[in-house]
């Protein structure tokens, strides 16, 4: 083996649950805190979920090791049981004597109830922990709920911790299990290790095996995190295989190539090699190429537009030989100031050049000024007067355009005055609807909580949304953690309800805004 080659006292990356290799990350400690909080309360159900290999069993072992002396524990590791088999197993765990043959559900339930009452009288707490609880049948979960019905005025006589994969959360969302879901007093979803936690995890296991030097370089550690996705069990498999490969190739330090090769052997069919476009340098290069392409396209398009506009203006320039009054009638834009007087000494011999512009909106027509240079030999007082009249006609046309949407209801035979008044009121109410729609600002896409940074996901407390009432006037409300909350209300730990939308709830936590689907549990 490679222990002597790397000066190790033992294999550091065994997947066996050795207590001395226990590594409690911030996530594991927080999960343990949630479990203890659920047990310190009035009882009921506590839920711990997480992907395969994230350390759920490790957390449960830490919990069981620190239980108070006045706690009687029943631990069930194989939940693929019927209701009767589950009750019989619980009796065995609690050391309850019962007749093995012919025992019915009622007999077993009565025996368990008697035991719970005796423990309560002796100030002994009864705790049931079920691992791999995602395999429980719905009827078995309902039987567990019925067991927790036995209670005093202050607490439940049986506390239950359900540990399982994320499928357990989906199972508890079934309508026939809603009563059980409402009795969950604490829940926590255990996430994989991040990059920094992975480095600390590997260093911890090597130090326990009496190795205090770095056996993995930085690139290898990054690759291990990418391939294992931060799951401790996969980290152990990849590291063990990588050390074996380094030993066989006589390498004192594990590099990236060794890790990728070792992961293929360790993970088998689950191994997914890192594609070239997933590398950090490749992503940066592709991003730079896209930016350059966008800038070049924008520059080329802008140059093309300028050339087209210049060509259009050049083609439309025309030398006018007719009297200026005819040219004035063809001008489609409006002069900002009317021509009142022109001194003949101020005129220069220039050619009249008219540029035909695209149709403009009313506000643009008001601000546009069309400059026309006139030949002095054709400029006469009557021409100026006619030019002034043409300008006035254009101003009148603009006024008509501005008021084309001012609708007035006129009386008609057989229509009452009250009905006419209602029609006029409806028109007045919707008069500015278009402008209002244009003035509305569209909020950007808000990320969901699962897309937020890790510190936000870890800081957000447990939330259970049972009811979701949306109202367009902002008066909607949601029922979260058993209490009615409105927009602007604080839920817990700094989480504030920002908006209640038809299909989701917008929340704010320490300045970060995120969304959760309606009627969800976190």
Helix content: 40-55%
Provide the gyration radius in Å.
39 Å
Strand order of the largest sheet: 2-3-4-1-5
Q: What proportion strand?
A: 5-15%
Supply the number of helical segments: 18
Instruction: Give me the CATH architecture of the largest domain, please.
Output: 3-Layer(aba) Sandwich
Number of domains: 5
How would you classify the helix and strand content by structural class? Answer: alpha/beta
Question: And the CATH topology of the largest domain?
Answer: Rossmann fold
Low-pLDDT runs = 317-381, 401-405, 431-443
Give a structural overview.
With 522 residues, this protein is an alpha/beta fold. It has five domains: 26-190, Rossmann fold; 195-274, Helicase, Ruva Protein, domain 3 (Orthogonal Bundle); 278-316; 324-402, no CATH class; 449-517, SH3 type barrels (Roll). Helices cover 43% and strands 13% of the residues. It contains 18 helices and twelve strands. It has helices at 26-40, 56-65, 83-93, 105-121, 138-147, 167-171, 178-181, 195-208, 218-228, 232-248, 256-267, 280-316, 324-330, 362-367, 381-402, 417-429, 433-439, 454-459; strands at residues 44-50, 71-76, 125-130, 158-164, 184-190, 465-469, 477-480, 483-486, 490-492, 495-500, 504-509, 512-517. It has a five-stranded parallel sheet with strand order 2-3-4-1-5, with helices on both faces. Helix 1 packs across helix 2, helix 9 (218-228) packs parallel to helix 11 and helix 10 (232-248) crosses helix 11. The longest helix has 37 residues, at 280-316. The chain is flat, with a radius of gyration of 39 Å.
